[in-house]
């Protein structure tokens, strides 16, 4: 049986409130042995902790997402430091920069992002990074602060940006978008990249693959991402599952 790790799934999202138990069962039946569940705002930290406490295959990360800027307050950064010291987080995040969505204050995003990077370094935790139309600035921040490790999830950048991340020791998370034949640049990167930097993800409930276009995404669909990438790389699916799960285990400290 396959054992794969979903390195980025928002199983705490309200989209799963009606059938979360069934979603979990489908994921486990498909071979998803672990899920990293990153928070998006301070209000979600306690519910996420409770969810993961009841399911040992769910692993929490705590952070402040740039798209939820209206939810954040500066004191949440102080609270995040206390939270990370107290709780068994596997990462800081989801955090980052988003210059795609209009109306998000860029300077405020930078303040929250940089402080979360500093917290990740302080607590020796990996960081889960959101970077949309902001990869060059994200890479510059990672390089400037230094002493960091982590993953840029839902990577959509260039070959050169990917190489810069690998030089910094960062992985890239690949999910449903790679299943679309039009994603030629992403497919080229995934086909040729160093395997040790590859992580699989769904970003559920968002970013469904081509077989579920227009539907809610869920972790069980990670198998379709696995099969697509295995075909692109000319690998056996079991070998790819083992390698990418090993990458996630090493990064997030999973048993």
From TrEMBL:
Give binding positions for a divalent metal cation 1. 8, 10, 94, 203
User: What CDD domains does the entry give?
Assistant: TatD_DNAse
Q: Which GO terms describe its cellular component?
A: cytosol
Q: Name one Pfam family in it.
A: TatD_DNase
Would the keyword Ligase be found if you checked this record's keyword annotation?
no
The GO molecular function terms of this record are: hydrolase activity, acting on ester bonds; metal ion binding
Tell me where on the tree of life, at the top rank, the source sits. Bacteria
**Keyword ATP-binding part of the UniProt annotation:** no
Entry keywords, A to Z? Hydrolase, Metal-binding
Task: Report the Gene3D superfamilies cross-referenced here.
Answer: Metal-dependent hydrolases (3.20.20.140)
- PROSITE patterns referenced in this protein's UniProt entry, alphabetically: TATD_2
Task: Tell me which residues bind a divalent metal cation 2.
Answer: 130, 153
Q: Which family does it belong to?
A: Belongs to the metallo-dependent hydrolases superfamily. TatD-type hydrolase family.
Q: Which PANTHER family match?
A: D-AMINOACYL-TRNA DEACYLASE (PTHR46124), HYDROLASE (PTHR46124:SF3)
What name does the UniProt record give this protein?
A: Hydrolase, TatD family
Organism annotation: Mizugakiibacter sediminis
């Amino acid at each position: 049986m396959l054992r794969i790790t979903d390195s980025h799934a928002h199983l705490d999202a309200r989209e799963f409130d009606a059938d979360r138990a069934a979603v979990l069962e489908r994921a486990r039946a498909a071979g998803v042995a672990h899920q990293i569940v990153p928070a998006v705002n301070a209000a979600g930290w306690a519910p996420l902790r409770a969810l993961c406490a009841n399911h040992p295959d769910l692993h929490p990360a705590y952070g402040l997402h740039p798209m939820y800027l209206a939810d954040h307050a500066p004191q949440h950064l102080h609270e995040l430091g206390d939270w990370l010291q107290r709780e068994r987080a596997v990462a800081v995040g989801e955090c980052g920069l988003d210059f795609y969505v209009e109306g998000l204050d860029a300077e405020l995003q930078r303040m929250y992002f940089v402080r979360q990077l500093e917290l990740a370094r302080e607590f020796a935790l990996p960081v889960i990074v959101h970077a949309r139309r902001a990869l060059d600035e994200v890479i510059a921040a990672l390089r400037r602060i230094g002493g960091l490790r982590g993953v840029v999830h839902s990577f959509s950048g260039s070959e050169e940006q990917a190489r810069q991340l690998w030089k910094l020791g960062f992985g890239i998370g690949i999910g449903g978008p790679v299943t679309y034949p039009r994603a030629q640049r992403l497919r080229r990167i995934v086909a040729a990249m160093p395997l040790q930097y590859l992580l699989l993800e769904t970003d559920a409930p968002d970013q469904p693959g081509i077989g579920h276009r227009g539907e809610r995404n869920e972790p069980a669909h990670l198998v379709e991402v696995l099969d697509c990438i295995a075909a692109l790389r000319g690998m056996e699916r079991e070998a790819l599952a083992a390698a990418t799960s090993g990458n996630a285990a090493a990064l997030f400290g999973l048993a």
